[in-house]
Amino acid sequence: MARRIDTYLQDLVAEEKFAFYEAVREFSDAEVAPHLLDWERKHLLVPDDCLAKMSELGLFGLPITTEYGGQGGDHTDLCLLGLALGYHSQSVAITPGAAISLGAKPLQLCGTDAQKKAHLPDLAAGKRMFVFGLSEPGRGSDAANPEVTAIKRGGNWVINGEKCWSTNARWASHVVVHALTNPTGPNGKRSTCFIVPMNAPGVFYQEMKGKKVWEQSSTGSIVFENVEVPADAILGAENDGFKVMVTTLNGGRLFIASLALASLAFALDKTRIYAEERVQFDNKPIGRFQRVQDVIVDMDIALERGLTWLMHCCKRFEAGTLSREQAAKVKVDCSRTASDLVQLAMEACGGVSCFDEFGLIRHHNDLFVTRVGEGSNFALKDLIVRPLRQP
To answer: In whole angstroms, what is the distance from residue 169 CA to residue 198 CA?
Structure first.
């Protein structure tokens, strides 16, 4: 099926970046699309052989510099990966996406030289995977004030508590734990991030059951019981965990926006083609009805607008000039607009949209995650409105 999204991307990115997008798109068509329905019906996570093939393609080392064995890509490349893989499955796309934006990226941005040398080569080769331990059972949007604690004991730190909704926990070698270290400190200076091996004594992982979104993605609960780590496990500076978190989530929100647009791109193609194939009323295609045409046109407009905005934000992120408000805005708009339009697309296509084989219900369900992931839209609007309340 021809992808309308390609028409816009060719004008928005450099030739070599579009070639990378095409390579990942072809991988997705060949290695994901033919197997996706079987994975879903058998309730499988992304299989190990698919992960291995993504490693061979260099996807896990995408943003890591060549010095450490990576591809030397930038954030635009990461979002192109999201667009290419997310077209068929957000679950598959978020696996390398979270490994990069929530795993390798904070290490790249905030790690010491020793930490980078110790981990980045294996992360680039797909031999290791970092998971970002941020959300907790009692802390979602208020992630800046974690309930997980880290207390100094001699020259080490002792970590206690639980992280949940941790993407890629099933495959993680290490978890970056965002923990409370300075309860009485000023806002933004109360927490510290630690790199903790998943096989450390006192670390317990369990896959979270009953999830009906991102069904091929691993989502785990990680419990820490008196887990002792040395001082050199700190990622960034002591009591600077909020800075690490914000730096990480800014880029992550752009990736989430790319997933929303990927789902919108799939829905646009599926609906516009189905509308010409489905005949009713005097044996004519339903694409002749203006209400159906309106849905298709609105999806097309939203896709071009969202892609243009997203690629602009990627450039700002790479230049270090993207504000928290801008990253939040594009994530909120792309996720909300895609969700609303995919629901209308399902209505236009009718009952067939309810079946997994048609594909729209998968994207409809997964788009919910884009509305609450990397900060819920409700919480992000509170962030966005702050400059607007200033005189």
So the answer is: 9
